[in-house]
């Protein structure tokens, strides 16, 4: 799984019929500290994520798993919305 930030949405009038009513979002991959890394990509969305939200996404075969009933052709899919990211040193147990 990878972290990313939703930076836009894609509309398409001509697409594969199995993609009908599926949301396509533009995602910028980020590091755990929130810095952009790599090129933006288009992800299908099964979570209802919105602009500016931090998400985690999967690619390859796993990208189609959330849609197994419909068998959609997906190369990248948002599978979760991130509430919080903690980066830094761990606190000792009991602190």
Can you characterise this structure?
The chain is mainly beta. It has a domain at 1-12 and 21-50. It is 0% helix and 35% strand. It has strands spanning 2-10, 23-29, 41-45, 54-59, 76-81. It has a 5-stranded mixed beta barrel. The radius of gyration is 15 Å and the shape is elongated. The chain starts with a strand and ends in a 14-residue tail after the last strand.
Features of this protein?
single chain; 95 residues; mainly beta; 5-stranded mixed barrel; 5 strands; 0% helix
Outline of the structure:
Helices cover 0% and strands 35% of the residues. It has a domain of 42 residues.
Q: Which stretches of 5+ consecutive residues score pLDDT under 50?
A: none
Sheet of most strands: 5 strands, mixed, barrel
Q: What structural class should be given to the helix and strand makeup?
A: mainly beta
Number of beta strands: 5
Distance between the termini: 30 Å
Q: Tell me, briefly, the overall form.
A: elongated
Whole-number radius of gyration?
15 Å
Strand order of the largest sheet: 1-2-3-5-4
Strand content: 25-35%
Number of helices: 0
List SSEs in N-to-C order: EEEEE
Helix content: under 10%
